[in-house]
């Protein structure tokens, strides 16, 4: 057994070493290691032991631990990929993959129609002179006045929702059209409330969260002192620059002054030379297509008839309200480079799942199913009321889920919510909050019987405290 264990550990170490060499910061890490190996701290007579000691004394050990942490985070959602040593993780369900392809073709057709209508080409070959001029004026581009009146969003969340409603599992016989209310015919496994309580157990049992005192008057000396102590502790956590420790610290919410640095450390959003490219032209974003159902859209390159190019260069066609993924992060950074790097890391880790069709449990489809099952099992009165008046619950909350609640909550409350996404590395907090909000507004919801009136009851969420609602929802049904 020991021999098998050692062999397994050796193979894992080899695999990890190969993967680390593919990371963006490997070159810098390797150069630093060479410098350290040539220093006086490392002895030729006992090279191995003294090198290990030198690595442990400096920051290199922490950097290595962080690299392993980020590698594990990027692989833990697909454990089979590690076991089988496969790089691909494309959608396994044929009908979902085909639905995504059909949806992308629909988007492309709409985009091409709009471009033809306003007389512009999707992509064209830019000459070297044009590229040089663009680089010189890069920092001034935001000051140019551009007429956007003829442009319109390619699609909106409601359009994507209709596509999800049209999904049909070929292995499931639909008894009636009413079956579409619960998506039970889709074989996606989502967590139960008990499993969510276990996942968010630190949040559920915490006696003091910074997010709970945000809306209260800070006249109480003990409250102020508690926040100051939390900031001091956060500064010590950041000194270690160890991502897992920062993630644990974030589970009780981040002090405003430290949130940006904590997010950067946990997300691993290191600044690189390509950071200055705007999102739509950032080809690094194409990496999301290696782990999703989506396929980048190809278009002919103007001036190069035999060539095709991906459009947009990052492969992502934004929907109406797409900028709401980035807007809240503007509160955290003064430096646009740091802001962009964190936004991109957040998108590549989480947001890309919210606008493509996938069987992943944290895809938009999985989150919709989780919301419906939580509402049906733990807020039966609301569910039955909606059913009796032909109000689809998902239509009520879909815009919240697809935009991560951005644009609907107060900025500080939204950032507290996004703290939880990063701290627990899960989007499942979004449907949990959606159910909690409906439960909180239950009395008013039960008095209206149309989708329009339901939307009116929920139009203003500015009075809500996110952390309070999440804690109450996790403590048990009917607690809100």
TrEMBL record:
SUPFAM superfamilies: Ypt/Rab-GAP domain of gyp1p
Domain Rab-GAP TBC: 253-425
Pfam families: RabGAP-TBC
InterPro entries in UniProt: Rab-GAP-TBC_dom (IPR000195), Rab-GAP_TBC_sf (IPR035969), TBC1D19 (IPR042507)
Cross-referenced PANTHER family: TBC1 DOMAIN FAMILY MEMBER 19
The protein's name: TBC1 domain family member 19-like isoform X3
Source organism of this protein record: Sipha flava (yellow sugarcane aphid)
Gene designation per UniProt: LOC112692553
